[in-house]
Amino acid sequence: MSVAWQLWLQLFRRTPLLVVLANLLRAGALYFAVQWLRGDDEDVMMAATLFGVATWMWHTGQGYNLRGVCVPESFLMPRFRRRLLEYGAIDIASWVLLPLLVAVFGGVPHLLLVACGLLVVAALGVTMGCNPRSGMLLWPIFIVLGWMPSLVSTFLKEALRSPFTPWLLVAIAALLLRFSVAPLLRIEDRETETSPLESTSLGRTQARNAPGEPRRMGMFGRRIAALYDRLSQRALQRALAAYARHPTLQRRMLLVRRLLLPHDNPEAIALRIALVAVIVFFYFFVLMHRQHFQPVAVGAYAIMLSISRFPQLNVGMVRMRPNMADLYLTLAPETRAEYQQIISDALLVLVPISVLTALTYTAFGAVLVHAPDPLHMLFVAAVVSLAASLAALAVHLIGPEGATGRTIVNLVVVFGTMAVYWGGYWLVGAAGYAFGGGLLALVALGFGVGVWFAAQREYVSRAPRFDAPIA
């Protein structure tokens, strides 16, 4: 019992808000269940809904907690798997058997189906907590089912009559748990650390929130990551060969960029854009088959997606400090300011990459939604994305290193960028490209360039730091 209590405390330490919300919802479900048992039949649906959401939230936290608990070192503890099994039995008793007992007192029909449904909801939560990418596979199923409500209603009526439905639900729950928990129970060699400034977006949802927690990727993710690594290795070899043939300052800067930003070579950028284009294509043609928004919003989404890279710069540069000492010794700058200038100039390449990404996504989105004035969108997106990228690079280069301060800065940048985009779109539409576009470029680019030069001066004046981050 003490082991179960420690595991529960571990869950509370990692996701306190989720634990509190799930138990508040369960308390609300208990209140409506008591009212239902007293004779108010209308409260049964409210109780079932609240408890279903509470179960899903709680077990999502349980899955997230398992990712940090099931590290290779944990399996050295005596009877570790048995303790996890006991913890799971306690969880089933409190989240499945107890509500089922209330349903028995209330005379709910189809008790076996209710029990199996609770198991499926719990297994779904564990799956989404253990493997956040599973939501990309599970949610489209529910969305597609939402297209055919009459067919789903007929299917549910037939499923209630079928004696095989409980066995099907048990099988679904078992498959979900097999898909989510089984990989956590395998003892594997720890993977090689990836660059903190990687731009594949494959591992950002798999951040290690506990020391030693391995990054878990599926077969598709591993293949894409391997492809990115091959492209970055090829680009680095080309840069090394070019510098060996003719060592110039320009080629040395290219070599520094290949070291700092391994996945920002032309081939990797094209691969990243192609992958996002596939997702966007699926989103518009499967999920958004009916137009629910203004086509102008495509440009705003594209810019927001393109500048989402810069908060990672702040985190990545802090994590890379110990490794940057090797780069400092290799470059052998005459002054510390020269080294800081090299790093800031190398990172400046993220700005044209961000602008290219925003324009590509805007053009692709404009084609998909049949925007009436795509040139207008592209013009405003080009100006605003350039200014926003400069500002975002500046504030995240010298901005706060704490999570709270970084989040506040990022929110200010995002909301400010959206305000400038919508205001600039209106201004160009009202005053024309010459006057309105010129005024937008003067204000936005003037601010972005000014902020960047001020941030660069501040960064160059700082002494290089090579100490490892505290956490």
From TrEMBL:
The chain crosses the membrane at residues 17-37, 84-105, 111-130, 137-155, 167-185, 268-286, 292-311, 346-369, 375-395, 407-427, 433-455. It comes from the Bacteria. Keywords: Membrane, Transmembrane, Transmembrane helix. Signal peptide: none annotated. This is Polysaccharide biosynthesis protein. It comes from Dyella acidisoli.
